[in-house]
Amino acid sequence: MLKIKTLKESFRGSNYTSALLHTKDTFSLKYRRLEIRAKLALGAASWSPFCLLGSNVITAGWPACGEIDMMKHSGNDQNKISTLSSAGR
Question: For every one of its 89 residues, what pLDDT tens digit does the chain have, with 9 covering 90 and above?
Fold first, then answer.
C-alpha cells in the first residue's frame, strides 16, 4: 500500500506539495493488468491524475514517449473521472 499525502507547505512558489513517482528501470508493463484504488482529493483547486509514461521517457521525452492516463480527476467536477487517453502517438 502506498499513501501519498498533500502537505500544506511552500515549495517552488506553490503552497502545497504532493508526489511524483519514478519507476524507471524498476517496473515496466507489457501485456499486463494494473489496478489502482484511490481516495481522491476534494476542493476546487485539486488535481488528481494517475498516468503512465513510456519507458523511453528519458531519451524521447514527453509526450513522444507516450502516455496512458489511467485516471484524471479535477476538484472542480467532483462527479467526473476521465480515463484512458494517450499522447504522443
Answer: 778 888 889 998 988 888 877 777 787 777 878 888 888 777 777 777 888 888 888 899 888 988 888 888 887 887 888 776 555 44
Q: Which domain holds residue 62?
A: 42-89
DSSP string spanning 43-74?
Answer: STT-EEEEEEE-TTHHHH-TTTT-EEEEEEEE
pTM of the model: 0.60
49 cis-preceded (ω within 30 degrees of 0): no
| Residue that the C-alpha cell 509526450 belongs to | 63
- Pick from 52, 54, 45, 36: which is nearest to 78 by CA? 45
Q: How far apart are CA 73 and CA 39, in angstroms?
A: 11
Is residue 52 a part of any domain in this protein?
yes
